[in-house]
Amino acid sequence: MVAVIVIVLLVGFALAYVATPLRRPGAAATATPEEQGDAIEASAKKDAALSAIVDIETERRIGKLSAADFEELRREYEAAALEALKELDTIRLSERTDDALEAEIAAVRARLECPACGAPRSPGEQCPRCGA
């Protein structure tokens, strides 16, 4: 009985962990179609390189590849996978940076407006329109 409860809890936590990105408003929703295309392309490159690594490991196990050929191919595919991961990181970092910058700009604009009437004013001074 205790084992069933533990398993149910673990499955629940795993589902919550996997679903977290789906619940959060992600940068992908605000990304331009070009950025989304770049991210999809980089992800496809990464997946292809990782699949190739798995394939050559299988071929080495069954004797189709020599150790030297395997090591050379593995280095090439690992380099390709790392390059694709760097592209993905760059794309995701630029999306996060843009969101943070937009939030900072909105905060500065809010400080430069009168809270009562919305007229532009200098920080710390009275509003020229309503005197607030």
* Main sheet record: none
Order of helices and strands: HHH
Our measurement of the CA-to-CA distance between the termini, rounded to an integer number of angstroms, reads: 66 Å
Average pLDDT for all residues: 78
Alpha-beta content class: mainly alpha
What share of the residues lie within helices? over 70%
- Number of β-strand runs: 0
Count helical runs: 3
Low-confidence runs (pLDDT<50, min 5 residues)? none
Task: Kindly estimate the percentage of residues that lie in beta strands according to DSSP.
Answer: under 5%
Shape: elongated
List keywords for this structure.
132 residues
Topology:
Blueprint: H1 2-23, H2 33-61, H3 67-111
Helix pairs in contact: 2-3
What would your notes on this structure say?
By secondary structure, the protein is an all-alpha fold. The protein has a domain at 33-111. The chain is built from 3 helices and no strands. It has helices spanning 2-23, 33-61, 67-111. The longest helix is centred in the last third of the chain and has 45 residues, at 67-111. The protein is elongated and about 85 Å long. The termini are far apart. 4% of the residues are buried. The mean pLDDT is 78.
